[in-house]
Each structure stands twice: as C-alpha cells, then as structure tokens.
Design goal:
By secondary structure, the protein is mainly alpha-helical. The chain has helices at 26-61, 88-96, 100-129, 136-149, 152-158, 162-169, 176-181, 185-195, 199-210, 212-217, 220-231, 235-243, 248-259, 261-276, 282-292, 296-324, and strands spanning 2-5, 11-14, 63-67, 72-76. It has a domain at 97-150 and 218-331: MetI-like (MetI-like fold). The longest helix has 36 residues, at 26-61.
Length: 331
C-alpha cells in the first residue's frame, strides 16, 4: 500500500498497483512459431533417422561385437567378470590403445587454429562481394565453388592427385621461372621473421600461408552466409550514421559487426563441426580403421567419446557467444 498525506493531515491509502509481467508480443510469437515450423524437418529427421543410429552407437560401445556367418552378435559385459564392466571398450581405447589422446588433442587444436582463419577470411571476401561491382554474380559463384569441392565425391577424387597436393602445400610456387618473377616462400619467411617478434605468431602466420588453399577450400558456406547477412542490413542505417559524422571504419565496427553477430555465431558452430568431422581428421580416420578391421565396438566407443567432446565444445562456445552476440529485438 502507498500512503499519501493530504493538506488536512489525513492519511489516504492507495492500493498498490501490480505491474503486469511483460510477455512476448504477437509478432514475436509468430516468429517463434515460424522458427519451429522451419526446424520441424530437421527435428523429425534427427529423431526418426539419426536417433536410432545414435542409440545403436551407444549400445555397440557398451557391448562386445562378434561377427558371425549370418551377421553379428552382441555380447554384454558383466561387472566383476570383465574389467571396467560396460566401459571395457572405453578402457581399451584410452588405456591400451595408444594415440587416441594425442589424436583428440590434435583435432581440437586444429579446430582452434582453423576458426579465426576461416571466419576472418570468409568475412573479408563476403564484404568485398556484397558491394556493388561489375561481375558480382560471377565472383560469388567462383567463391562458392569450395562448398561443392568439400562433397564426398570431390574429396575422394582429390586423394592422390599431384596437382591438388602441390596446391595444398604450395610446393609449386618456388619452381623455375616463377621463383625469379615473384616473391618466393623462402623470401616471405625471411621477411616475416624480421617483422614478427613472437615465434608463435610467426609460426601461426606461416602455417596459414602454407595452408591457404585448404583454408579457401573450407570457406564456401561461410562466405555465402556472411553475404546474406550483409545484404540484410538496411542501407538507411549507414546513411543515418554518416549524417551523424561516422566514418566507414566506425560503421563497420559499430554497425556491421554487431548486426551480423548471429551469423558469426552460426559460422563458428559450422566451422567447428566441419573441422572436427572432416575426412582427413585423425579421429575420423581412426574410426574408419576400426570399421575396416570389423571392430565396430571400438569404433562406436571412439565415436561416442568424440560426439560428447564435440557437444561440450559447442555448448561452451554457445554460452560464450550468447553473452556477446547482439540480437535485434522489436521493442
């Protein structure tokens, strides 16, 4: 109750007004419904197609696989009889099988190295291609080619290809007449060695230069997502900012980057999954080796552990990004 004293000295009691809790507006509810409708095929497909596969993988990892003439048989582990019981396969891949810890570390470290390179390069190319320029559609198609190259058929065809290996390692740049006409890799290393003071930064830059073809090859989808995000920003926002005296640099860091923040988040998640699940990943190669040896129980155990690690990485990144990403609201 709120008390109010009038001129005569009497105390008047006013009822306390309860503030109504603000809920979602009709427009926000409509967007939420549209979002669930858009995700319905993905949710349906995951439950009825991948859900069974995931359950079978967990079941295989907790049992012993025995191949028979007509198929296979799964033998359950028992506590007290088998070492580590149901987790015997996990004990084997970590304690008895050498290399999995190092392979996991190399996979995560490679992912950490790939993310800034791919995101920065994709955003740089998308910024160029989103502007008005002659032949813009042609150049967009050229930079979308890497998204086609990462398909399974193309990846299989590039294995053992001498030209592909040469482009990936940049071994052909320093050959013959090219070396006399342009800056060679050795000259670039010497120049960077004189400029960069930290050896870690120097090694990181040289690793990016040596793997430039691989980086470009992984940026097709990210470039496309960034282009759609940049084209979705209203030009009137930039016009208003320029009227207020903002420079192009101010507009880029205070308008463009915050507005495409959700798409940066999406591209980071996509890059994490793409890097950790690529065909040349050491853990994926290990799973394929176990499968080729008909050790499906060990392959399932490695896959389950790897799935949990990827889920934890995505969860941590999501918690961090949700704190810093700007989401546009209609309030």
């Amino acid at each position: 109750m709120n008390k109010k004293v009038d001129a005569s000295g009497a105390v008047a009691v006013e009822p306390k007004v309860k503030l109504k809790k603000k809920g979602l507006t009709d427009y926000e509810k409509q967007k939420t419904i549209y979002g669930y409708v858009f995700l319905a095929p993905l949710i349906f497909g995951f439950i009825f197609f991948y859900g069974e596969i995931l359950i079978n993988a967990v079941y295989f990892s907790l049992t012993k696989f025995n191949s028979t003439g007509n198929g296979y048989a799964l033998e359950s582990f028992h506590w007290g009889v088998d070492t580590w019981g149901w987790f015997k396969n996990f004990h084997y891949i970590f304690a008895e099988q050498n290399g999995i810890i190092e392979s996991l570390w190399n996979s995560v470290l490679g992912m950490i190295i790939d993310i800034p390179l791919i995101i920065i390069f994709s955003l740089f190319i998308a910024t160029l291609l989103s502007g008005k320029m002659p032949g813009r559609g042609f150049f967009r198609a050229i930079f979308f080619i890497p998204a086609v190259l990462v398909t399974g058929v193309i990846v299989e065809s590039t294995m053992g290809n001498a030209l592909y290996d040469s482009m990936t390692g940049l071994s052909g740049i320093s050959a013959g007449g090219i070396q006399s006409e342009m800056l060679s890799i050795a000259d670039m290393e010497e120049l960077l060695g004189e400029i960069v003071f930290s050896s870690d930064i120097y090694n990181y830059i040289m690793s990016a230069v040596n793997n430039i073809f691989s980086v470009v090859n992984k940026c097709g989808v990210q470039i496309l997502i960034f282009i759609s995000a940049l084209l979705g920003i209203s030009p009137s926002i930039y016009e208003s900012a320029k009227i207020e005296g903002a420079s192009g640099w101010d507009c880029y860091w205070k308008i463009t980057i915050p507005m495409i923040g959700p798409m940066i988040y999406v591209n980071i998640i996509y890059t994490i999954v793409d890097s950790l699940c690529s065909a040349d990943n050491t853990i994926m190669i290990m799973v394929d080796q176990y499968k080729s040896q008909a050790k499906y129980d060990y392959a399932a155990a490695v896959a389950v552990v790897y799935f949990i690690i990827i889920a934890l990485i995505i969860g941590i990144v999501s918690l961090v990004m949700n704190k810093i990403v700007f989401y546009q609201t209609n309030e």
